[in-house]
C-alpha cells in the first residue's frame, strides 16, 4: 500500500519542494493550502497528488479535513507541519491581530494538525511527524519576536511530543531552516542580501530543496532511530 503524506502550507516555496521530494520518494501527497489555490492545484496535477483547503489554525476544520483524509486513504503515514507566516515589525508596534495570527498559524497549526493525526497513528503504532521551525526559533530575531516565539515553541513541542509518542512507535522531529531563498525573502534589497550572505559560513543561501532533503531523510527508514531532534539547515549561520 502506498504511503500518504500531508504537507501543510504545501503551495509555498519550501512546501512545494517538500511535496515534490516526497512524491519522488513514493508518497501520495495531500497538499494543504489556504490562500494559494491555483498553485496547490497546479502542483497536485504535476505530482498526481491532491489539494485540500483548510486553515491550520482552525481546529474544527483541521479535524474534519484530516479525518476525511484518513477515511479516504486509510492512513496518514507522514505529517509535515510546514504552514507558517511571518512579519518584520517592532514588537511594540505589531498589532495584536497580527501577533495572534502568527502564533495561531505557526505554533497553533502545528499542534492542531499533530493532535488530529495522532489517534490513527497511535492505533496503527506507526507514523512520523516532521515540524518546520527556524533558526530564529533557536536564537531569536530582532523585529520578528512573535515569529521567533512561535518557532521556538515548535522546537519545545517537538521534543516533548517525541517523548510522549515514542512508545507507540511514532517519531517526531524538526527541521530548522536558516536563510532560505524563497519569494518571501525577495523583499530584501541586494545590499541587504549581500550583508546576510556574509554571515553564512558556507557563503551561499539555502534553497527549498535543501530543506526538502532534510525532511525526506527524517521521514525515511534511515532515520528510524532518530526522534525528538532538531536538524539545522542553515549553512553554519547558527551552530
Quick structural overview:
By secondary structure, the chain is of the alpha/beta class. Helices cover 48% and strands 16% of the residues.
Characterize the structure shown.
The termini are far apart. The chain has a single domain, classed as NAD(P)-binding Rossmann-like Domain (Rossmann fold), CATH 3.40.50. The model has no long low-confidence stretch (mean pLDDT 97). Helix 1 links the parallel strand 1 and strand 2 (27-33). With 239 residues, it is α/β, with parallel strands linked by helices. Helix 1 (13-24) crosses helix 8, helix 3 (59-73) runs parallel beside helix 4 (96-124) and helix 4 runs parallel beside helix 6. It has eight helices and seven strands; from the N terminus they run E-H-E-H-E-H-E-H-E-H-H-E-H-H-E. It is globular.
Instruction: Please provide the ordered H/E string of secondary-structure elements.
Output: EHEHEHEHEHHEHHE
Report how far the terminal alpha carbons are from each other.
40 Å
The fraction of residues assigned to DSSP E strands is: 15-25%
Q: State the shape.
A: globular
Q: For this structure, what is the CATH homologous superfamily?
A: NAD(P)-binding Rossmann-like Domain
Notable features of this structure?
16% strand; single chain; seven-stranded parallel β-sheet; 8 helices; Rossmann fold
Topology:
Elements: E1 3-7, H1 13-24, E2 27-33, H2 37-47, E3 50-53, H3 59-73, E4 78-81, H4 96-124, E5 127-132, H5 135-139, H6 145-165, E6 170-177, H7 190-198, H8 208-219, E7 230-233
Parallel strand pairs: 1-2, 1-4, 2-3, 4-5, 5-6, 6-7
Amino acid at each position: 500500500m502506498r504511503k500518504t503524506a500531508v504537507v501543510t502550507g504545501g503551495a509555498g516555496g519550501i512546501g512545494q519542494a517538500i511535496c515534490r521530494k516526497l512524491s519522488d520518494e513514493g508518497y501520495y501527497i495531500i497538499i494543504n493550502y489556504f490562500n494559494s489555490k491555483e498553485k496547490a492545484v497546479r502542483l497536485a496535477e504535476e505530482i498526481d497528488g491532491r489539494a485540500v483547503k483548510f486553515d491550520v489554525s482552525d481546529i474544527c476544520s483541521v479535524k474534519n479535513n484530516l479525518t476525511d483524509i484518513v477515511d479516504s486513504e486509510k492512513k496518514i503515514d507522514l505529517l509535515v507541519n510546514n504552514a507558517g507566516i511571518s512579519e518584520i515589525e517592532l514588537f511594540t508596534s505589531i498589532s495584536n491581530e497580527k501577533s495572534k495570527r502568527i502564533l495561531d498559524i505557526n505554533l497553533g497549526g502545528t499542534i492542531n494538525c499533530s493532535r488530529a493525526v495522532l489517534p490513527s497513528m497511535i492505533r496503527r503504532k506507526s507514523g512520523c511527524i516532521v515540524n518546520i521551525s527556524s533558526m530564529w526559533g533557536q536564537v531569536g530575531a530582532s523585529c520578528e519576536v512573535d515569529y521567533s516565539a512561535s518557532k521556538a515553541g515548535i522546537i519545545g513541542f517537538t521534543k516533548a511530543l517525541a517523548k510522549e509518542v515514542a512508545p507507540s512507535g511514532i517519531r517526531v522531529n524538526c527541521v530548522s531552516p536558516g536563510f532560505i531563498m524563497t519569494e518571501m525573502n525577495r523583499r530584501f534589497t541586494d545590499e541587504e542580501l549581500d550583508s546576510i550572505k556574509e554571515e553564512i559560513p558556507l557563503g551561499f543561501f539555502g534553497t527549498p530543496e535543501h530543506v526538502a532533503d532534510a525532511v525526506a531523510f527524517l521521514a525515511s527508514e534511515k532515520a528510524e532511530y532518530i526522534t525528538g531532534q532538531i536538524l539545522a539547515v542553515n549553512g553554519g549561520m547558527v551552530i
